[in-house]
TrEMBL record:
GO cellular component terms attached to this protein's record: cytoplasm
Cell compartment(s), UniProt: Cytoplasm
Domain Ig-like: 2-86
Pfam families cross-referenced by the UniProt entry: I-set
Protein name per its UniProtKB record: OBSCN protein
Keyword Phosphoprotein: yes
Source organism superkingdom: Eukaryota
Keywords carried by this UniProt record: Cytoplasm, Disulfide bond, Phosphoprotein
Annotated PANTHER family: OBSCURIN (PTHR35971:SF4), SI:DKEY-31G6.6 (PTHR35971)
């Protein structure tokens, strides 16, 4: 299995309370396994507040819906041993 690396990392975002925000991270290979999103070191799950998806096989996205002050912090995307933060 090829070593999947991060081709294009996360970018810092500033949003207003109540808005949605989307983070994108592009990886080197499709169907990457061992992928994880975190907010302040807490693993995020796909649910009504967090939409986690993959676009075109290599672009992993995280959308936080209706953000609040509690959502302020570091977003981390990890694939294998590689990480990107914003």
């Amino acid at each position: 299995e090829p070593d999947v690396t991060i081709v294009s990392g996360l970018k810092d975002m500033v949003v207003l309370e109540g808005d949605d925000v989307t983070f994108r991270c592009q990886v080197s290979h499709e169907n990457a396994r061992d992928v994880e999103w975190k907010l302040q070191d807490v693993a995020l799950q796909n649910n009504e507040m967090n939409e986690i998806s993959v676009e075109k096989g290599r672009t992993h996205t995280l959308t936080l819906r209706k953000v609040t002050e509690q959502d302020i912090g570091t977003i981390t995307f990890r694939v294998g041993p590689h990480t990107s933060t914003a």
